[in-house]
Design a protein that fits this description.
- This protein has 2 helices and 8 strands.
- It has 120 residues and is mainly β.
- Strands 1, 2, 3, 4, 7 and 8 form a 6-stranded antiparallel β-sheet that branches.
């Protein structure tokens, strides 16, 4: 199953937010004895919460940060063979909440004057 979001249809508020549980590979730098390697190596289970940008039969591609211009930061490709589970945790509209953030910031008293976003 191929799910790729075309650039011309990009709307960050409609991209699914997913939780991926997956097994990460393990590596150490440099040389070690075979005994040390056998004793030290072990994969680990990771949990990633990110935007799902692509999913096909082999892999998923996620990113933790999206800009309103259609750019993603630090994309991560996870092979399907190492995925334990993947679930959509949100497909709701993720509309900007500038006014709400400004009102919350005004209530925090840390000795710094806060200018509401509406008046900037």
């Amino acid at each position: 199953m191929d799910r790729v979001i075309p650039a011309e249809e990009f709307d960050y508020t409609k991209i699914p937010l997913v939780r991926v549980q997956w097994r990460d590979h393990f590596s150490t730098p440099g040389w070690a004895s075979v005994e040390e390697i056998r004793a030290a190596t072990a994969s680990t289970v990771c949990h990633t919460i990110a935007y799902l940008l692509k999913e096909d039969d082999e892999e998923v591609v996620v990113t933790s940060t999206l800009s309103e211009q259609g750019d993603g930061a630090d994309p991560l490709t996870i092979l399907k063979k190492v995925i334990i589970s993947m679930e959509v945790i949100s497909q709701r509209q993720l509309a900007p909440r500038k006014k709400r953030v400004a009102k919350q910031a005004k209530r925090v008293n840390i000795g710094v004057e806060v200018t509401p976003i509406e008046s900037v």
